[in-house]
Predict the 3D structure of the following.
Amino acid sequence: MSHVGIVFFFYGVFPSRRHLSLFHAIQLIARKKYGRKYGKTGQAPGEVESCYEAGVCGFTLKRRIEHLDCRCVVIAPSLVPRKPGERVKTDRRDARKLLMMHKAGLLTEVHAPNEQQEAARELTRLRETAWHYRHRYVPSKVLKKRRKGRPQWAVQIADAAGRRLSKRHRHLVNNGKMPCKANIAVARELAGFIWFVVTQYHARINTKGAA
């Protein structure tokens, strides 16, 4: 059985040399728009599969790709085989390495939770993050360094959230609320701030696009 391998990396290069996101590229393949490159039938030569390392993409990307009837595997980064002394690490090399190992069946798949399970995990993470707001909000040196080059409007929202949530947590505890309940309350407000940042980002992108 022959395979056609296509390597993607963030804003990587598709064989047609169009710059596409991973999901957009998979979508085009699934719709067989590039099928004529492989024959006269106008269809892909076989099943379309993809894989990526577990990370910031979460499992939403996997679900979107599988919604297009394409198999997608999320790989455990810590279990990817590595050669002794292999230190050079780039997106391009990682993508090619995943392609070859995926074809050879050498990768370990991560169990993907459903949407409800993933939402519960995110809530747990938010509750753990909320625990840090029991202290007075003062941006650390590490945080200030991480913010360099970031949009000022986003930094201002983050500062407002830090001050608000820190004050809120202490207020609840000082008024008799159990710390675990204070964490839940603060986590809910933190989710609201995150949502606000996302909506502001898309609003600003759309405004620039309209201009």
About this structure: The chain has a mean pLDDT of 78.
